[in-house]
Amino acid sequence: MFSRELIAASARPLLLSILAEGESYGYALAQRARKLSQEQVQWTDGMLYPVLHRLEEEELIKSEWREAETGRERKYYSLTRGGRRALEKEKEQWLAAHNTLIQLWNLPPVST
Amino acid sequence: MEPTPRFDLEQAVSAWRQELAQQRGPAAKDVRELEAHLRDAFAALKKFDLSDEEAFMVAWHRVGPPTAVAEEYAKEIFPPLWRTRLFWYAFLLVFVGVAGWMFSRPAEYMADASLRMVKSSNGEPAGPEEFNTRIHIAETWNVASEVAQMMTPEQRMAFVAPFPDADDPDAKANLVNRLLAQRFVAPGRLAYILQFGVEHPDKKLVAVVADDFAQAFMNQEKIRDPDQQYQWLDHASSQIIQSEPKPAQILFSGFFLGLGSAIIITMLTRLISQLRRPPPTPSAEAV
Lengths: 112, 287
Description:
- The complex is a heterodimer.
- Chain A has 4 helices and 3 strands; from the N terminus they run αβααββα.
- By secondary structure, chain A is α+β, with helices and mostly antiparallel strands.
- Chain A has one domain (about 5-80): Arc Repressor Mutant, subunit A, CATH 1.10.10.
- Chain B is α+β, with helices and mostly antiparallel strands.
- Chain B has 2 domains: about 10-75, no CATH class; about 110-275, no CATH class.
- Chain B is built from 8 helices and 9 strands.
- Chain B has helices at about 10-20, 30-45, 50-65, 65-75, 80-105, 140-150, 170-180, 270-275, and strands at about 110-120, 125-140, 160, 190-195, 205-210, 215-220, 230-235, 240, 250-255.
- Chain B is elongated and about 75 Å long.
């Protein structure tokens, strides 16, 4: 079970990483995150959006309303070039933090 | 027993939407996006053989209670970007302002000027003539004194000129204003004017170098130090002459100055071209 602070902090690299796989929309993003975390990240889907909007403001992602195959409109998000760069940076930082802790826990480090 | 009211999805969504819209935080576009999410969740859950009501309830929970969702929107998870941006914009503005101020400072101007000069050949003054020339005004002492130090008797194409009507403050001001107002770059024809302080009348003299002037010039006007001493550089003897100039003496290439005297003559363009030339390769004898 993640703490609220950790959820908030990890939402950013999480969303960037999911979007690096290709464009997506809110519900699908939430589903993907839920599956990846094996239900350990107990966030409500509504929490995603402020983070998404923030990323969009920073021009790391961009969005577009489009009609989906269901006939309803959806807002699709995709990574910008700046987003890709930001993701690389996030990756470095998270792995560095991870590898720092892991040494104390006698677990094998992750190659960076 | 009363019959259970039939669940109506649209009604439920509408009520939910209204509740959300009443909260502080999400804007109309956010409600629209959340509704799309709710409906996506609902559609996905319906595949699990749930009733509309059950699917809606689960979807509702997934999205989160409207109050909690609204709270997330209202909350500042990060410092708002506009604040960060505002800081940088302000910083940038100040930086640009300072840089702009520094670069826009009129350290040097180019201008057309009309100068009354006496031309000298074989020691016999002729003129005065009116010269329309393009001059370069520098307002710094540093350039002037550096150039004065580098000046050699070979640099003889310089002339000096005082402001016209040196005793008429309006005429002086007008000339200065005119020179300052006309800013343009001289194509090929360069001259230098240096203007100084105002405490001594002769300090309002200007010094000019024109590198396309092949002949020496002399100045008809008086040019003095504040101590009333004249200073001339006699180009025949390369001496600084401190006496009233006589026509025979004033085949000069320019004036020299100590601090406080009125005139500096430069050969700035020649010096610049010398600086630009690559250093001479060491000769075989030197080795």
